[in-house]
Amino acid sequence: MTETGLTKFNNVFMPMISEQLQGHSIQMTDYQRMCVMSASQNMYELINKNGINPNNIMNDVSNILMTVASLQLNANAQPSEIYFQTRNVKTDNGWSKTIEMGIEGDGNDAILARFGRNVKHVYPVWIVREGDSYTPAKRKGIHITDPEWEPVDGSDAKVVRVVYPIEFWTDDQQTDSTVEYYSTNRELVKPNLLAHMINNLRGESRKNPKGYAEKVEAIKKFTKAHTVDEILDSAEMQDKGKISPAWKEPQSREQMIIRKMRNNVVKKIPKDFSNGLAVQTYEETTNESLKQSRRDVTELANQLDFDEAVEKPETQDSQPDVTGDGEIIEPDSASQDSSQPATSKAASEPTSQAAPADKVNEGVPF
After folding, report:
1. Domains of the chain: which residue ranges?
2. What is the average per-residue pLDDT within 23-31?
3. The model's pTM
């Protein structure tokens, strides 16, 4: 990676993002600027490593940076809030690569802490495993007892539940607060897995509608009668539903299930966004259908020339609607949810993720 190349990259996109935010009556803060810079650096390293022509992905990069800015997600936070990966896109002229962003579990926690309605503080999530001692909360009238959790040290057993202790303000003056507990269990991930399998078959719905309908019916019937693990272990379901390795492989299955449980909890907690742009980017980032629609459009929309943007950044037209990646996934799942077939001219599959900075190949000029 060369400093000149990264500087050139930032000089193209930073004014563009600032101008688009101003178009939504948003003045970029120092923290938003830092988030954009961090995301730019990570994407530049990934572009550099994979030899991607920036001319082909201008709109994708712009959309990602708008999402990062509006939701204030930090690519360099520890634990990570977002990550980046490449995806192969099939076009009329063959295959090319683009970049996608995914929100990791702590990114959703950051969004909840920042935009959650009356949220004062989001406490660390409880990851309850088989063998742990766990007593759920109980209600007596309007009063609720606190749940109790005693984990087994060093256990790598299956996770059966996640619990979020969240402190809420109870008055408009924010002088008093109370802690509430939001939880979900392993089996409530089944709808996520079902959606994953059905979405994987979207391409077949056009080529073979009857076969598609039969597969979907078989998948729904099997899913209703079996547990999450039985579905993932089923060779029939793996084949019919084209279940991705990140869901079914032992090294990534548990993290995927934890991720989905956490997402399911965080999504149902009300949020108040400060502007329409944040609402739009959040909805498009967490809604698989909207994500797929965005892919169908942007795979054919990257027509803005990178070198021209460097020479004349002030003349750029407004970019397409902003968004990020839909299914909320983490680095170990680079081969799953983003592998859905596109519905226009392109079919896609993920290829690689951003490598650590010290392992990125250098010297690919822009």
Report:
1. 3-107+272-359, 117-186, 188-267
2. 89
3. 0.71
